[in-house]
């Protein structure tokens, strides 16, 4: 299997590269050559890249995919009301099959809008792994663990099972993490146990952190420290690669505690805006050398999971918050959504950059649209004007998942039929 993309405008996302016209050759699951002109070989699947941009696929660093079944079901509530009164009761009704179809719905939306890899934290992870296997996307999967109720042991066992059964599966597209849900749902004993497992098995951790002011107050009342100090005291940053979702309410000293950590922070601006959580100080984190990536959170809060919407929200919020339009430039926010997120998923050596030897995870964006002409600064156009519907082609691991906006691994008619019935049943009466 080989693909030759001809005469695209290529944005590699390497530090030193500017966009240039050229060809990309893919053999198997990897990019083998990028050059101004590459000779076609017999059997090449030729793709016309004229008037298109080729760039690394976007990486959604924080998701709860089956929550697409709860899209636009319950909005305009505070986070804890939304979670406790609406999401948790609905989730309690979800069957493993619901999870499978909900995950596929999110994955279809992600492939359509140019996301090639993502990080998921949810329940019934075997079904999500099956959906990932079938659809062809790349994913880091986490069994979310809440330890405030009974039976934390079962959750922990499911987390271990996920890691053992699925790491490296689906042609290597699936990786796994341990997922203690948040400081407010994980008392110190199970938290330390998970950190020890993560260290011993070299498995990363995915956790929510400091999403709301209420969380900060709760953790101070319980433990006399900030949520970030709580995780640091438990040894998390020193012992594991950690994907921290949100990081909205971090003070200067908290940011200092994250310096030198492996992993970093997944910024989810649309979810934070919609739930009224606040604006994460991501430009201060970046200035301190902390890796920051971009995510959407679940469609239950973000409503859409188009990463191009997140890109716009992320950069505009920093400019607004600091009254400074130089904050979080187009290039910086594109870096966050590709290389930054790749680092959070611990895939920094494999994806996030177009380069010979790397995995072939890339997208083609069609520029022949009124809102994408003329092309002065390509990176500005990508950050501020492109939206998910402009993505023409999505390739993951060298396999074409969408071409000319046709999904090739998902039967959307069947998907929509399944989703309609299941979503109605799940929310009835809640
Ligand atoms: C136990 S699996 C993950 C768990 O997280 C919930 N969730 C979704 N969005 C958020 C958010 O913004 N903050 C905290 N928790 C969230 C989801 O409903 C699942 O129950
Ligand atoms: Zn979340």
What does this structure look like?
- Its cofactor is Zn(2+).
- Its EC number is 3.5.4.28, 3.5.4.31.
- Residues 54-400 form the Amidohydrolase-related domain.
- Substrate binds at residues 91, 143, 154, 181, 211, 297.
- InterPro entries: Amidohydro-rel, Deaminase_MtaD/DadD, Metal-dep_hydrolase_composite, Metal_Hydrolase, MTA/SAH_deaminase.
- The protein has 16 helices and 17 strands.
- With 430 residues, it is of the alpha/beta class.
- Strands 1, 2, 3, 4, 5, 14, 15, 16 and 17 form a 9-stranded mixed β-sheet that branches. Strands 6-7-8-9 form a 4-stranded parallel β-sheet.
- Helix 13 (307-322) crosses helix 14.
- The longest helix is centred in the N-terminal third of the chain and has 17 residues, at 96-112.
- It is globular, with a radius of gyration of 21 Å.
- The mean pLDDT is 97.
- Zinc ion (ZN) binds at residues 62, 64, 208, 245, 297.
């Amino acid at each position: 299997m080989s693909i030759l993309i001809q005469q695209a405008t290529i944005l590699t996302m390497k530090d030193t590269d500017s966009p240039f016209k050229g060809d990309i050759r893919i053999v198997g699951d990897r990019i083998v050559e990028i050059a101004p002109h590459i000779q076609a070989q017999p059997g090449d699947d030729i793709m016309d890249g004229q008037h298109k941009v080729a760039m690394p696929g976007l990486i959604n660093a924080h998701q709860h995919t089956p929550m697409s079944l709860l899209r636009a079901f319950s909005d305009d509530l505070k986070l804890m009301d939304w979670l406790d009164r609406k999401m948790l009761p609905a989730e309690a009704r979800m069957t493993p099959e619901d999870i499978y179809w909900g995950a596929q719905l999110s994955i279809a939306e992600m492939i359509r809008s140019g996301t090639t890899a993502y990080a998921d934290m949810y329940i019934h992870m075997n079904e999500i792994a099956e959906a990932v296997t079938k659809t062809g996307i790349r994913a880091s999967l986490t069994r979310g663990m809440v330890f405030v109720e009974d039976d934390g042991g079962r959750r922990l066992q499911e987390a271990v099972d996920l890691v053992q059964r699925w790491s490296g599966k689906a042609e290597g597209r699936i990786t796994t993490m341990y997922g203690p849900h948040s400081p407010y749902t994980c008392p110190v004993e199970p938290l330390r146990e998970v950190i020890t497992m993560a260290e011993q098995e070299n498995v990363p951790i995915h956790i929510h952190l400091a999403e709301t002011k209420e969380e900060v107050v709760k953790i101070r009342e319980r433990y006399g420290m900030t949520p970030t100090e709580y995780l640091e005291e438990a040894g998390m940053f020193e012992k594991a690669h950690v994907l921290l979702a949100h990081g909205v309410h971090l003070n200067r000293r908290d940011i200092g505690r994250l310096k030198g950590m492996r992993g970093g922070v997944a910024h989810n601006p649309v979810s934070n805006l919609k739930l009224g959580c606040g604006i994460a100080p991501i430009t201060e984190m970046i200035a301190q050398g902390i890796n920051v990536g971009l995510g959407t959170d679940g469609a239950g809060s973000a409503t859409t999971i188009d990463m191009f919407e997140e890109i716009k929200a992320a950069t505009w919020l920093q400019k607004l918050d600091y009254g400074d339009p130089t904050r979080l430039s187009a290039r910086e926010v594109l870096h966050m959504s590709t290389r930054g997120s790749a680092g959070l998923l611990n895939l920094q050596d494999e994806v996030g950059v177009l380069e010979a030897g790397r995995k072939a995870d890339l997208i083609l964006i069609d520029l022949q649209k009124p809102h994408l002409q003329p092309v002065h600064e390509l990176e500005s156009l990508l950050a501020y004007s492109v939206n998910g519907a402009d993505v023409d082609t999505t390739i993951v691991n060298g396999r074409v998942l969408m071409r000319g906006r046709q999904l090739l691994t998902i039967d959307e008619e069947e998907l929509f039929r399944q989703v309609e019935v299941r979503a109605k049943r799940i929310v009835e009466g809640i």
